[in-house]
Write a structure and sequence with these properties.
The chain has about 80 residues and is of the alpha+beta class. It contains two helices and six strands, in the order E-E-E-E-E-E-H-H. It has one domain. The chain is about 25% helix and about 20% strand. It is globular. The chain binds zinc ion.
C-alpha cells in the first residue's frame, strides 16, 4: 500500500522514502525518515510554505518538471502535520 508522509507528502515505500522512527525504534506510521526520527520532527520550526519549497526542489532533483512538482505539493495543507 502506498502511504504518503504526513509531513512532506512524499511516498513511503520500499522504493520511496523509509519511514521515520518513534522513540524506542518502532516505525512511525505517519512520517518519513527525512521529516521525523526518534519521535520528533527533524525541522520542528519549518513552516508549510518552506516544506512545499523543499519538496518541489527534491522532486525537481528527481527529474520532475517544476510545474508538476508544484502541483504535487498543493495537498500538503491537508496532511496530518499541517491540518
Ligand atoms: Zn516526510
Amino acid at each position: 500500500m502506498l502511504r504518503l508522509c504526513q509531513s512532506c507528502g512524499m511516498p513511503m515505500s520500499d522504493k520511496g522514502l523509509a519511514p521515520g522512527r518513534e522513540i524506542g525504534g518502532s516505525i512511525s506510521p505517519y512520517y518519513c525518515h527525512l521529516c521525523y526520527d526518534e519521535g520528533v520532527f527533524l525541522q520542528p520550526e519549518i513552516r508549510l510554505s518552506s516544506m512545499q519549497h523543499l519538496v518541489i526542489h527534491a522532486l525537481q532533483r528527481n527529474g520532475w518538471p517544476k510545474m508538476v512538482a508544484w502541483v504535487a505539493t498543493r495537498h500538503l495543507p491537508f496532511l496530518r502535520r499541517w491540518r
